[in-house]
């Protein structure tokens, strides 16, 4: 890979960024230098981040928010200055596990390969907390309603912490917790609603105000099982659904709204292991495993992952090890990112002001609503950007 150097060069160059993440996370950055470099990295650059789709058809019929929205209307232009570094070495991770009858095999695969995930996180010396919930919102029991599951092998713990034991011990606790004995019935998976409930409750303050947040959803169906296409199970989204003070609970923007209202400055990503939209072979495999009513494309979950710059993996993979490692890599790298007000049009972000002396190579790039800095900002750094909402 060759990269152009900044300096007194005037013109435009096309730079191919090879991310340390999976192939799907690669981005291409166009850089147009419009002022002379004078020995310090201060100036105005048009930096166009071209986001590459992660797969699937990307189409859905989800009701769109039209008022009181978290995401500004399409075409809105924003100028923002980021002047504080992301949360240092703290990450809270919420696993949302589908506990319907068809998910036994997938729970086992997640449990078996969790060690690859925890090893990546632990290897970076992160101060992490891990909580686990189910997609069951059909009642108010201890395994429902976004309640944290009691961690297996502990007296009364609901969080996995790095100080609780060795990687092997923590992996075993996760494995024995994520493999569920109870079965949700009927199969009305609501991973987004469950995550919203868990965040709003924030049991014992386990989600820390100064930590980044990552959510990992494992399901062989979509929100409300079929993404609202099944009679009697509509998607309750935004202003289309009103329950007291609650505006929406099943859609991408509903979760984004919940995080931003409870933790206004938090960086967060959502990752999903699902039947990728358009992957008919995977869908057929899941149908054969659980029946025609027990498998659907995870369209809304993919939309949520794309929106927040998360990873989208296949639930049909034989081995979840590499996918969990990819998710861990994204979580680690998201510490050096800023959350924009929306997903930029065509991934384009204009950098108006660089910090003095800030290394511009490799340049930042976008993933969903994240502006990611391969060279992390330091305390006292300030950077100003402009972009238009897609």
SSE order and pairing:
Blueprint: E1 11-17, E2 27-33, E3 45-50, E4 77-82, E5 90-97, H1 104-123, E6 127-134, H2 167-178, H3 191-201, E7 212-218, E8 242-243, E9 246-247, H4 252-262, E10 268-274, H5 280-290, H6 299-308, E11 312-314, H7 321-333, E12 337-339, E13 348-353, E14 365-367, E15 370-372, E16 383-388
Parallel strand pairs: 5-6, 5-7, 7-10, 10-11
Antiparallel strand pairs: 1-2, 2-3, 3-13, 4-16, 8-9, 12-15, 13-16, 14-15
Helix pairs in contact: 1-2, 1-7, 3-4
Quick structural overview:
With 390 residues, the protein is of the alpha/beta class. The protein is 23% helix and 22% strand. The chain has 2 domains: 11-84 and 343-388, no CATH class; 90-335, 3-Layer(aba) Sandwich (Rossmann fold).
Q: Mind explaining what this structure looks like?
A:
The protein is α/β, with parallel strands linked by helices and 390 residues long. The chain folds into 2 domains: 11-84 and 343-388, no CATH class; 90-335, Rossmann fold (3-Layer(aba) Sandwich). Helices cover 23% and strands 22% of the residues. It has a 6-stranded antiparallel beta sheet with strand order 1-2-3-13-16-4, with no helix packed on it. The longest helix is centred in the first third of the chain and has 20 residues, at 104-123. The protein is globular, with a radius of gyration of 21 Å. The two termini are 30 Å apart. Residues 1-69 have low confidence and may be disordered.
